[in-house]
Design a protein that fits this description.
Blueprint lengths: L31 E2 L4 E2 L1 H6 L21 H20 L1 H7 L25 H4 L10 H21 L1 H22 L9 H17 L5 H16 L5 H19 L6 H28 L1
Antiparallel strand pairs: 1-2
Amino acid sequence: MDQAVCCYRHPDRETGIRCTRCDKPICPECMVNASVGFHCRDCVNQRGGTHVQPRTIAGGSVTSDPFLITKILIGLNVLVFVLELALGDRIVDDFGLYAKCVDLQTLQPARCGVSDGEWYRVLTSAFIHERPSPVHIGFNMLSLWWIGAPLEQRLGRSRYIALYFVSALGASAAVLVIAPGALTIGASGAIFGLFGATAVYMRRMRYDMRPVIALLVLNIIFSFTWANVSWQGHLGGLLTGTVLAIGMLYAPRERRNLVQWGTCAAVLLVTLAVSAIAVSQVTS
């Protein structure tokens, strides 16, 4: 088994990246973007203190609060949950993911849902959770913090935002294809996208994959065995997040932005096209 290599400034952090000048191991916080590879902060200082914008492993900007977007996402989810408690089923009915609504009195299709042009549901449904119990939102928000916050720090804000929202759309696309008649709500599809991205990151950094694989397997088993859990959305989010992370973390440095944002655009177009095809099948 390979011996773990740790950052020269942070001995508690394993890393697979080295300074291209002195070959010291460096973690994402200590990486300074260079024309070729990364430099450590000591080498940058030895070059006369030239200021170089530090970058994450994916090329994103290093910020003073690397967890800001995750905090905002958690805040939005909690805010919507409070509105659900105040307004009742209205929030779910108006913003949950339906391909086609059904009038519960007549059991006939009603004029609502994605098939009637309410496309905002493919995204708004990711901010709605079951009520009145806080278990659903509590579990999702804990997962978002544990998985999302470290990933935001390693990717940078813009790439993390793209990963989260496109994963949510991928989860909705899978639901529309496999279970178009089901009401689907919750952030878990997007969070599964973060799980997939975390696995790609650990592979990229040559970390021990066993913990994240075990966690993924447990969550997938939970998705298929627990009642009222959308395994379709979970798998859709997982697949989407994994593909996006591969494009973000394995992009060649010379064309990194092109490959990364090109991957995001391509995956986004595929999810929208798949959703449109699925909805057209419902309406026909």
